[in-house]
Every structure is written in C-alpha cells, then in structure tokens.
C-alpha cells in the first residue's frame, strides 16, 4: 500500500477504480485503494457473520461527532447501520483529543479495560506531525499499540491525518502520513487513507471541509468492505 507523491499520485489514482459501493454518495466517491485494508478485521467479521452487536471505540479528532438524529447517533453509526442494518453498532466516543500517539495509546489501554471494544478506530498523527515527534518513536508507539491490541483480539483501524491545503504546516502532515504508511506496510495495519482521500476530493473541485465531511461515509465503507469480503 505504498503511496506515490504529488503529480505521480494524481495520475495514478485516475487509473484506480472508484469505490463501487452503491452506498457511497456521488460527492464522496474516491478511488477504492484509499479504502482497502491490508488485513482482516477478524473479530468484527465474526460478529457480523453471527449478526451479533459490535462495540466500536473511537479515539482522536474524529470528523463525525455531529449528531444526525434526536438519539444523538454519530454519523459513523448511521453510515454503518445503513450498510449493515441487521447489526447493532455501539459507538463509544472517548472525546476529541489532540494528544500525541503515545498519550492516545495510554487512553486506549485505559478505555479497553472499561468498555471492552471489539474494534478501535484511531485517528492518529496530526499532533505528532505538528510536534515534530521523532519518527522512530512514533512508529514504535504504533507498533506497540498494534501488538497490544492483537494480543487481546481487538481489531484496529487507523485514520491518517487529513489533507489541508494552503497552510504552512501541510508538509508536516505529509511526512507523518509516509511514516504511518511505512509502519502499516511492515505490521499489516489497516489504514483509512484520509490524506489521500481528502486530497483526491480537493482535486475534484471540492472544498477541504466538504472532503472531511465525507469521512464518516468512507470509514464505514472501508470497514464494511473488510468484514464482508
């Protein structure tokens, strides 16, 4: 799942098929490669196969916290339920955080003991990019987290930082995205490529805000693709 850069990436994604799921709105369709995982979500897949409830823990500055109904269901929950209506999804939101990866890993360990999730969705890298965290230390934290969760049979999905054009620190995001990619290749970690997806949507004449508004749909699509393939 190596990423190309700049013009090479732009040319390459034009040759990739768009995510074909009828459930994705036209405005949010991106090349399928951005939503394809490197490994299975084994625990979540088994629960879905049995039509059992799925508990999802969300860590990091997720883009979907705005309520869509009177019951305060998150956009992610709505999108998952729309694709798998027979499954009850419970979203446990640990709240927005701008913490470094090592801080978030501590929160994950504490939350796992409290809420016993089946799947963790972790948006990671934004704070580390801005703080210029040592790349090896950042990678080691991700590897530790993946191993810790694997040992407890808990599925993990990472979301890398968004593409934010026109800001001075954009190049810092690009560096951390490459680091996440390298670790995910080595450890076969599952990553929703928000950076690539939002960059693609931006190049399609959509605003950055519109691109980020698509993320709940795209995360749900990636998860459902992984557990039903």
3D structure, described in words:
- The chain has 229 residues and is of the alpha/beta class.
- The protein has one domain (6-228): Rossmann fold.
- It is built from 10 helices and 5 strands.
- The protein has helices spanning 6-14, 42-49, 75-83, 101-115, 126-130, 135-150, 170-187, 194-203, 208-213, 215-228, and strands at residues 54-59, 89-93, 119-123, 155-159, 190-192.
- It has a 5-stranded parallel sheet, with helices on both faces.
- Helix 7 (170-187) links the parallel strand 4 and strand 5 (190-192).
- Helix 3 (75-83) runs parallel beside helix 10 and helix 6 packs across helix 7 (170-187).
- The two termini are 18 Å apart.
- The model is unreliable at 1-15 and 65-71 (pLDDT under 50).
What keyword list fits this structure?
5-stranded parallel β-sheet, 10 helices, Rossmann fold, 48% helix, alpha/beta, 229 residues, 5 strands
- The secondary structure category is alpha/beta
Q: How many discrete domains?
A: 1
Query: What would CATH call the architecture?
Result: 3-Layer(aba) Sandwich
CATH class: Alpha Beta
Uncertain spans:
1-15, 65-71
CATH homologous superfamily identity:
SGNH hydrolase
At the third CATH level, what is the topology name? Rossmann fold
Fraction of residues in helix: 40-55%
Mean pLDDT: 83
Distance between the termini: 18 Å
Major sheet strand order: 2-1-3-4-5
Counted beta strands: 5
Order of helices and strands: HHEHEHEHHEHEHHH
Beta content comes to: 5-15%
Biggest β-sheet strands, sense, barrel: 5 strands, parallel
Shape estimate: globular
Q: What is the C-alpha radius of gyration, as a whole number of Å? A: 16 Å
């Amino acid at each position: 799942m190596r990423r190309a850069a700049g013009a090479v990436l732009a040319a390459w994604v034009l040759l990739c098929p768009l995510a074909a799921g009828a459930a994705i709105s036209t405005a949010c369709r991106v090349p399928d490669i951005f939503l394809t995982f490197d490994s299975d979500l084994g625990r979540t897949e088994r629960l879905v196969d049995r039509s059992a409830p799925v508990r999802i823990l969300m860590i990091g500055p997720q883009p979907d916290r705005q309520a869509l109904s009177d019951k305060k269901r998150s956009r992610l929950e709505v999108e998952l339920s729309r694709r798998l209506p027979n499954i009850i999804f419970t979203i446990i939101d640990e709240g927005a955080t701008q913490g470094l990866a090592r801080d978030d890993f501590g929160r994950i360990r504490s939350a796992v003991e409290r809420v016993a999730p089946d799947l963790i969705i972790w948006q990671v890298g934004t704070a580390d990019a801005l703080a210029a965290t040592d790349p090896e230390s950042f990678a080691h934290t991700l590897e530790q987290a993946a191993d810790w969760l694997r040992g407890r049979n808990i599925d993990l999905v990472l979301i890398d930082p968004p593409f934010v054009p026109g800001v001075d620190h954009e190049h810092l995001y690009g560096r951390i995205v490459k680091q996440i990619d390298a670790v995910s290749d080595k450890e076969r970690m599952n990553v929703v490529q928000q950076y690539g997806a939002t960059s693609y949507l931006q190049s399609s004449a959509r605003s950055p805000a519109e691109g980020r508004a698509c993320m709940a749909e795209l995360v749900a699509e990636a998860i459902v693709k992984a557990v039903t393939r």
